[in-house]
Amino acid sequence: MRTSRWWTRERFNRLGVLVGCCGFAFAMLAWLCPARLVLQGRPEHSVPFTVGIRLNSPAVWERGQLVQFHVRDLRPYYPAGTPFTKGVAGLPGDHLQLEGRTFRINGSVIGTARSTDSQGRPAWLYVPERTPDGFCSIENTRVVAGGSADCILPPETLFVLGVHERSFDSKYWGIVRFTEVAGRVVPLL
User: Fold this and answer.
1) Against a cut of 0.90, is the pTM above it?
2) Element of type H or E holding 28
3) pLDDT per residue as tens digits for the range 39-86
4) Which of 19, 59, 113, 147 could disulfide-pair with 101, CB 3.0 to 4.6 Å?
5) Whole-angstrom distance, CA of residue 8 vs CA of residue 19
6) Considering the domain 40-187 in this protein, what is its CATH number?
Protein backbone atom coordinates (compact mmCIF):
# COMPACT_ATOMS: atom_id res chain seq x y z
CA MET A 1 0.00 0.00 0.00
CA ARG A 2 1.34 3.44 -0.97
CA THR A 3 1.39 6.23 1.62
CA SER A 4 0.18 9.67 0.69
CA ARG A 5 2.78 12.41 0.57
CA TRP A 6 2.12 16.13 0.64
CA TRP A 7 4.72 16.72 -2.06
CA THR A 8 3.16 14.84 -4.89
CA ARG A 9 4.40 15.61 -8.38
CA GLU A 10 1.19 17.52 -9.16
CA ARG A 11 1.54 19.76 -6.08
CA PHE A 12 5.22 20.26 -6.75
CA ASN A 13 4.44 21.34 -10.32
CA ARG A 14 1.76 23.78 -9.11
CA LEU A 15 4.20 25.27 -6.61
CA GLY A 16 6.77 25.67 -9.39
CA VAL A 17 4.25 27.46 -11.59
CA LEU A 18 3.26 29.77 -8.69
CA VAL A 19 6.88 30.64 -7.87
CA GLY A 20 7.62 31.16 -11.55
CA CYS A 21 4.65 33.49 -11.99
CA CYS A 22 5.65 35.53 -8.92
CA GLY A 23 9.23 35.77 -10.20
CA PHE A 24 8.01 36.80 -13.66
CA ALA A 25 5.72 39.47 -12.16
CA PHE A 26 8.57 40.85 -10.06
CA ALA A 27 10.93 40.87 -13.08
CA MET A 28 8.32 42.67 -15.20
CA LEU A 29 7.81 45.25 -12.46
CA ALA A 30 11.56 45.86 -12.28
CA TRP A 31 11.82 46.06 -16.09
CA LEU A 32 8.81 48.34 -16.60
CA CYS A 33 9.69 50.82 -13.88
CA PRO A 34 13.26 50.25 -12.65
CA ALA A 35 13.58 53.76 -11.24
CA ARG A 36 10.49 53.21 -9.10
CA LEU A 37 11.54 49.95 -7.45
CA VAL A 38 12.95 50.57 -3.95
CA LEU A 39 15.18 47.93 -2.37
CA GLN A 40 16.20 48.24 1.28
CA GLY A 41 19.32 46.32 2.20
CA ARG A 42 18.83 46.52 5.97
CA PRO A 43 15.17 47.27 6.70
CA GLU A 44 15.64 47.02 10.46
CA HIS A 45 17.83 50.13 10.38
CA SER A 46 15.74 52.54 8.33
CA VAL A 47 12.22 51.52 7.45
CA PRO A 48 10.12 48.37 7.97
CA PHE A 49 10.23 46.85 4.47
CA THR A 50 12.59 45.15 2.04
CA VAL A 51 10.97 45.90 -1.33
CA GLY A 52 8.75 48.84 -2.16
CA ILE A 53 7.58 50.92 -5.07
CA ARG A 54 8.03 54.67 -5.33
CA LEU A 55 5.01 56.74 -6.30
CA ASN A 56 4.74 60.44 -7.06
CA SER A 57 4.82 62.79 -4.09
CA PRO A 58 1.39 63.49 -2.61
CA ALA A 59 -0.03 67.00 -2.73
CA VAL A 60 0.00 67.02 1.08
CA TRP A 61 2.38 64.89 3.15
CA GLU A 62 1.18 63.09 6.28
CA ARG A 63 3.10 61.86 9.31
CA GLY A 64 4.11 58.23 8.99
CA GLN A 65 4.26 58.18 5.19
CA LEU A 66 7.50 56.85 3.74
CA VAL A 67 9.50 59.26 1.62
CA GLN A 68 12.41 58.57 -0.72
CA PHE A 69 14.83 61.42 -1.28
CA HIS A 70 18.39 62.10 -2.39
CA VAL A 71 20.68 63.33 0.37
CA ARG A 72 23.02 66.30 0.34
CA ASP A 73 26.72 65.54 0.71
CA LEU A 74 26.99 63.56 3.95
CA ARG A 75 30.60 62.47 3.71
CA PRO A 76 32.30 60.51 5.21
CA TYR A 77 29.03 58.57 5.49
CA TYR A 78 27.25 59.02 2.14
CA PRO A 79 28.00 61.01 -1.03
CA ALA A 80 25.51 63.53 -2.40
CA GLY A 81 22.65 61.96 -4.32
CA THR A 82 22.48 58.73 -2.31
CA PRO A 83 18.82 57.61 -2.15
CA PHE A 84 17.38 57.33 1.37
CA THR A 85 13.95 56.16 2.52
CA LYS A 86 12.63 57.37 5.88
CA GLY A 87 9.33 58.03 7.61
CA VAL A 88 7.85 61.53 7.80
CA ALA A 89 7.88 62.79 11.42
CA GLY A 90 7.59 66.56 10.94
CA LEU A 91 5.65 68.65 8.44
CA PRO A 92 5.89 72.28 7.32
CA GLY A 93 4.65 74.53 10.11
CA ASP A 94 5.40 72.04 12.91
CA HIS A 95 7.12 73.34 16.03
CA LEU A 96 10.60 71.74 16.39
CA GLN A 97 12.49 71.83 19.67
CA LEU A 98 15.90 70.49 20.62
CA GLU A 99 17.01 70.11 24.23
CA GLY A 100 20.45 68.52 24.57
CA ARG A 101 20.16 65.70 22.02
CA THR A 102 16.40 65.12 22.39
CA PHE A 103 14.06 66.32 19.65
CA ARG A 104 10.39 67.24 20.04
CA ILE A 105 7.81 68.04 17.42
CA ASN A 106 4.72 69.93 18.59
CA GLY A 107 5.70 69.08 22.19
CA SER A 108 6.04 65.30 21.73
CA VAL A 109 9.44 63.58 21.96
CA ILE A 110 10.24 61.98 18.62
CA GLY A 111 13.77 60.80 19.27
CA THR A 112 17.15 61.32 20.83
CA ALA A 113 20.31 61.57 18.75
CA ARG A 114 23.17 59.28 19.73
CA SER A 115 26.45 60.87 20.81
CA THR A 116 28.55 58.44 18.75
CA ASP A 117 28.11 56.84 15.34
CA SER A 118 28.29 53.10 14.67
CA GLN A 119 32.10 53.34 14.45
CA GLY A 120 32.40 55.02 17.86
CA ARG A 121 33.22 58.46 16.40
CA PRO A 122 31.50 61.60 17.77
CA ALA A 123 28.16 61.88 15.97
CA TRP A 124 26.82 64.91 14.16
CA LEU A 125 23.83 66.79 15.57
CA TYR A 126 21.35 68.96 13.71
CA VAL A 127 21.18 72.19 15.70
CA PRO A 128 18.88 74.47 13.68
CA GLU A 129 19.28 78.19 13.99
CA ARG A 130 16.11 80.25 14.19
CA THR A 131 15.75 82.61 11.24
CA PRO A 132 14.28 86.10 11.79
CA ASP A 133 10.85 84.83 10.67
CA GLY A 134 10.97 81.97 13.23
CA PHE A 135 11.79 79.14 10.82
CA CYS A 136 14.48 76.49 11.32
CA SER A 137 17.61 76.78 9.20
CA ILE A 138 17.83 74.01 6.60
CA GLU A 139 21.34 72.84 7.46
CA ASN A 140 23.35 73.41 10.58
CA THR A 141 25.06 70.15 11.40
CA ARG A 142 28.03 69.92 13.67
CA VAL A 143 29.72 67.68 16.16
CA VAL A 144 28.58 68.94 19.56
CA ALA A 145 27.63 67.37 22.87
CA GLY A 146 24.16 68.87 22.70
CA GLY A 147 22.23 71.88 21.59
CA SER A 148 19.14 73.97 22.01
CA ALA A 149 16.65 75.08 19.39
CA ASP A 150 13.07 76.29 19.17
CA CYS A 151 11.78 76.99 15.66
CA ILE A 152 9.14 76.18 13.02
CA LEU A 153 9.76 73.80 10.10
CA PRO A 154 9.81 75.95 6.96
CA PRO A 155 7.43 75.54 4.02
CA GLU A 156 8.30 72.69 1.64
CA THR A 157 10.44 70.77 4.14
CA LEU A 158 10.11 67.49 6.07
CA PHE A 159 11.73 66.17 9.24
CA VAL A 160 12.33 62.45 8.63
CA LEU A 161 13.18 59.54 10.93
CA GLY A 162 14.07 55.87 10.62
CA VAL A 163 12.66 53.19 12.91
CA HIS A 164 15.94 52.06 14.45
CA GLU A 165 17.53 54.01 17.31
CA ARG A 166 20.76 54.28 15.30
CA SER A 167 19.02 55.38 12.11
CA PHE A 168 20.95 58.14 10.30
CA ASP A 169 18.17 60.69 9.84
CA SER A 170 17.11 64.32 10.32
CA LYS A 171 18.35 64.32 13.92
CA TYR A 172 21.88 64.27 12.52
CA TRP A 173 21.82 66.12 9.19
CA GLY A 174 18.72 68.31 9.15
CA ILE A 175 15.47 68.67 7.32
CA VAL A 176 14.69 67.52 3.78
CA ARG A 177 13.60 70.00 1.11
CA PHE A 178 10.77 69.05 -1.23
CA THR A 179 13.23 69.56 -4.11
CA GLU A 180 15.28 66.62 -2.75
CA VAL A 181 12.24 64.32 -2.59
CA ALA A 182 11.88 61.59 -5.24
CA GLY A 183 8.44 60.42 -4.07
CA ARG A 184 6.35 58.48 -1.61
CA VAL A 185 7.20 54.81 -1.03
CA VAL A 186 4.66 52.03 -0.59
CA PRO A 187 6.05 48.79 0.89
CA LEU A 188 5.49 45.58 -1.07
CA LEU A 189 7.46 43.09 1.06
Assistant:
1) no
2) helix 9-32
3) 666 655 577 777 888 889 999 999 999 999 999 998 888 899 999 999
4) 113
5) 16
6) 2.10.109.10
